[in-house]
Design goal:
mainly alpha, 0% strand
């Protein structure tokens, strides 16, 4: 990772991580009704993403298998959630839940231990670099950068809100919704750039 990207990415992630941490602590500190477990699980997954991406940016010696063991099940969890009725989804939207599933799978892909699997050489020759890991990284990186633009537009009130928990279109986005959109945009942009750097 180049120094030109490392410091801006670190700054962005250190701004985003406390937001998701505060959402996790809100049920205990707010005194109001506790948020559903699926909402807290979503926030916990995104907090772990921010921590893991910071570790990856600085190449901290964390075994890649550990991150895969965290984010692969998280991706499957979001896939299972996406099959539920919209009223039971963390954000009331299958599209957003699928986006979370893809972003968790992208984290597992980036953390794959010992590089991405590839084929051996032909006729006993040296193994050449396989082409398909670059295609996967390019596709995931491009998708995350595009969706980061959507999240940023939502944070800046340029895109419509997803349906609320009752299934009706919610009222215009409030400050908390805008902050959430900007946080997801930041994480998506950082992850997209990290994936493109792998190509």
């Amino acid at each position: 990772m180049s120094e030109a990207l490392r410091w801006p990415m670190t700054l962005a992630l250190t701004v985003v991580a406390p937001y998701f941490a505060s959402r996790l602590l809100r049920p205990a500190a707010g005194g109001g009704p506790a948020r559903p477990a699926r909402h807290r699980g979503c926030d916990a997954a995104h907090l772990l993403m921010a921590v893991a991406m910071t570790a990856m940016v600085w190449t901290v010696a964390v075994p890649g298998a550990m991150w895969v063991a965290v984010f692969a099940p998280a991706a499957l969890w979001f896939v299972v959630l996406a099959a539920r009725s919209p009223g039971r989804l963390p954000h009331g939207s299958r599209a957003v839940t699928w986006y979370f599933a893809v972003s968790m799978a992208a984290m597992a892909w980036m953390a794959w231990p010992s590089g991405h699997p590839g084929g051996g050489g032909h006729h006993g020759g040296p193994a050449g670099p396989p082409w398909w890991p670059s295609v996967v990284s390019l596709a995931l990186g491009g998708y995350l950068l595009l969706t980061a633009g959507w999240w940023a537009g939502r944070g800046l009130r340029l895109t419509p809100r997803w349906p609320d928990q009752a299934g009706a279109v919610a009222s215009p986005a409030g400050p908390a919704v805008r902050v959430e959109g900007l946080c997801h945009a930041t994480m998506g942009a950082v992850m997209g750039l990290m994936l493109l750097a792998m190509v």
